[in-house]
């Protein structure tokens, strides 16, 4: 049932192009507009939403962090993303004009379930993004948008994460479409780009051998740091989480802008630091800032592992290892930038002799608070 792969995780990483395509299937019509009829919240209600709150745990939380950037940019609706376990217990402010989005692969995560129950008690509308048909979270929500990743067996989430991102983009773009935001033209262009992302993920998967080799060479390290800005920041956090849970290594994901506020003190000779670089096209300020971050850490002896767009010549001189990913719009980049980090963590775990599909102390679905 592992389809010739040594681990379910490897199989599930390889299934990502299809999972991404399947999650888009039937949701974009011939005119290039979104059709999300299954989301049974009337457009009239969606037009009145004043705030979006996303709640989730772990990897699903990282998808929600990325969704915040997309929702605020494409719809101009204020959006906050919070860990479900924190949200529930701080008496959050919500009403019938709040859309709460609960993201969960399993649909059974107790922290997320408690958060959405609390939200509904306050009168908020709850939309679930979920991979498991008929599970508790969608049953208790007002509406559900299913991700079509297929069953995810490995404890570490991979294909479910990519499809959670796709579902978040769909919801963000749909809100933009329904509300006719000033980003209307951009929304149409992005829907088109989104359709091509499965192919881009496939391209990334064909270039992973150097990443595996790099990972094997780092098997005796104690710490790996991950840096990113904007949507690259949650990608960095996801890269760190994968490494912790699979390789049992100390790993941390930082916002690159925070470096100088403390973490830069951690940089020492030969410390591996993974940096997720945004596209040099579009928001070039972001790109310039991260290039100077790479220079800063390299000047202090760090071993820089740089994930950057193909053709991005500016980062080359500062990259000890360069991992190239296809050109995509900035907001969609996490779909391709995360894949090398999954492969990296999986290979490091294997090199350290760990059980990839069943990391110690972890369960696939966390049904206690
Ligand atoms: C990490 C991982 C966990 C889950 C988290 C939420 O690889 O799998 O962090 O993402 O426990 O689970 P779901 O999405 O089922 O609510």
TrEMBL record:
Q: Which molecular function GO terms apply here?
A: glutamine-fructose-6-phosphate transaminase (isomerizing) activity
Please report the stretch or stretches of sequence annotated as the SIS domain.
41-181, 214-359
Broad class of where this protein is predominantly found: cytoplasm
Q: EC number(s) on record?
A: 2.6.1.16
Q: Where can this protein be found?
A: Cytoplasm
Q: What class of enzyme is it?
A: transferase
List the catalytic residues.
Answer: 364 (for fru-6p isomerization activity)
Tell whether Cell inner membrane is among the UniProt keywords. no
Where in this chain does the entry annotate a coiled-coil region? none
User: Which reactions is this enzyme annotated as catalysing?
Assistant: D-fructose 6-phosphate + L-glutamine = D-glucosamine 6-phosphate + L-glutamate
Q: Which UniProt keywords apply?
A: Aminotransferase, Cytoplasm, Glutamine amidotransferase, Repeat, Transferase
On subunit structure and binding partners, the annotation says: Homodimer.
Instruction: State the function annotated in the UniProt record.
Output: Catalyzes the first step in hexosamine metabolism, converting fructose-6P into glucosamine-6P using glutamine as a nitrogen source.
Q: Know the name of this protein?
A: Glutamine--fructose-6-phosphate aminotransferase [isomerizing]
Instruction: Give the species this sequence originates from.
Output: Streptomyces hazeniae
Gene expressing this chain? glmS
Q: Which residues of the full protein are shown?
A: 247 to 615 of 615
